[in-house]
Design brief:
With about 325 residues, the chain is an alpha+beta fold. The chain is built from eight helices and ten strands.
Length: about 325
């Protein structure tokens, strides 16, 4: 592009802080290799004036082009800068102060040295800014985690869906349950909460829900007595600008919570029974007599078994003796 075209653009396109997009197009047309971070703050004419003051050359001259190239090269390391959405103005002031410091040092230091000192100052000031909260999965629009990227000159949000996964809850028809519309990230104060219900369905289709009457004193919780099967949903934020939507699917059983508690208590009693439990209605003397009788019966059975074994052995001995005598007679 010819130098007179650039000069014509600088004259015909006045700088206005509310319309940086036109200046962005102008500078990208003139310097296609310019780092995007340089386009975020300040008009291009400021950089052109800076190079003119430093070199004394005009736009079409070689020294002026070299100065612009040096600015682009020095700003490449700033492409990775990311700050919170509320820190964008602080970032702009830091970058603009660095540009002014380069102007103040013209003629005193070489341009490359001034640029390196300016970049170092920018990084030092950025390290003093507050840390931006990280995005917390799995869902919801998180305003506190919104960041400004210097490389794209844009605000970037967490790439999560507004609808949270459905949570399964198991309950009974006579049980009272409490649902809470809470999220793990920071939300603005005074945010409205809306509770809804879709009977007999496990769904996230908002057209199937009907609004419920919540508790104005405790808007973030919902108490349900005698629950029915279906999906309960809560919306954080206005209908047109929600922050997050949570879903609870109620698996309702026809049994009674009191019956289950009774069974659990009985089962727990059986599990925790031990030998230390006293035996009632059994006298100590009767227990001793019972053990003695059992021992006497066992003794009789053992004696009878021994007697039977002896008799069997004697019979076998007499039979062998007879067989031996018959063998001798035959011989």
């Amino acid at each position: 592009m010819a130098w007179w075209v650039l000069a014509l653009m600088l004259v015909l396109v006045p700088w206005h802080p509310r319309n940086p997009g036109l200046w962005l197009w102008v500078l990208m047309s003139c310097l296609p290799e310019v780092n995007p971070c340089l386009l975020c703050f300040g008009p291009p004419i400021q950089r052109a004036r800076l190079c003119h003051d430093i070199t004394g050359a005009f736009v079409n001259q070689f020294r002026h082009k070299k100065c612009l190239e040096a600015l682009v090269e020095a700003a490449k390391s700033l492409a990775s800068v990311t700050v919170g959405s509320g820190q964008r103005e602080e970032l702009r002031e830091i970058v603009m102060d660095a540009m002014y410091s380069i102007e103040d040092q013209r003629g005193k230091k070489p341009l490359k040295k001034s640029l390196q000192e300016a970049v170092n100052t920018i990084w030092a000031k950025l390290s003093q800014l507050g840390k931006v909260p990280a995005c917390i999965p799995p869902c919801g629009f998180q305003p506190a985690a919104r960041v400004f990227q210097c490389a794209t000159c844009r605000f970037v949000d967490c790439q999560f869906a507004l609808d949270c996964p459905v949570q399964d809850l198991w309950t009974y028809t006579d049980e009272t349950i409490v649902l809470r519309c809470s999220v793990p990230f920071h939300i603005p104060t005074g945010l409205p909460v809306t509770w809804m219900f879709a009977p007999n369905l496990r769904t996230q289709d908002m057209t199937l829900f009907k609004e419920l009457k919540g508790n104005p004193e405790k808007p973030f919780s919902l108490t349900i007595e005698e629950p029915a099967p279906g999906t309960v949903a809560c919306r954080l934020g206005e209908h047109s600008k929600p922050i997050a939507r949570k879903f609870f699917y109620l698996n309702v059983s026809e049994g009674s919570i009191e019956e289950e508690k009774g069974l659990e208590a009985a089962f727990s009693t059986v599990l925790h029974w031990d030998d230390k439990t006293p035996l009632t209605h059994i006298p100590t003397v009767g227990l001793a007599v019972g053990f003695g009788s059992m021992a006497f019966v066992l003794l009789l059975m053992a004696s009878w078994q021994c007697l039977c074994v002896r008799q069997t052995c004697r019979r076998r001995g007499h039979q062998r003796a007879r067989e031996d005598s018959r063998c001798l007679d035959s011989l």
